[in-house]
Amino acid sequence: MAAAIADNDHPCEQGFVQSLGVFFDTMVICTMTGFIVVMAHVWTGTVDGQAWESVRASKITVYLASVQALVPVSVAHVVKIVMCVCYGLFAFTTLLGMISFAEISANFISRSRGFIGGIRVLGSLVFVPFGALTVLAELELPNL
Questions:
Q1: CA–CA gap between residue 99 and residue 113 (Å, rounded)
Q2: 3, 14 in Cβ contact below 8 A?
Q3: 6-15, 41-50, 88-97, 118-127: which has the minimum mean pLDDT?
Q4: What does pTM read for this prediction?
Q5: d(CA 25, CA 22)
């Protein structure tokens, strides 16, 4: 979305920047996450007294259990708290980014204060609560 409104001398400049972002997000971050899960081997035993079937129900639970299995026991709880804070900050900054992109897109459609206000109200009173309710209802995509 950011590339669509970028102002560059040549479109290839923005395409290069976007391809680097996709490379780092997909190839580096996702690969490192996969290595952590594979190295921990949490599926071979129990995690905090829970069977693998209950742990694998959530992606975050699998990742946190993997990280906790790889760090020393003395700092495991601190690392778990840091990881949870990182997940929370990631969700919050993603939400801010999506709201910003919605407002930028709305400005391209109309500069009317009423229209922009309507988009803000729609986002804050409909979409954000809907997203929070789906998380609270545990309506996540399953691990395959």
A1: 16
A2: yes
A3: 41-50
A4: 0.68
A5: 5
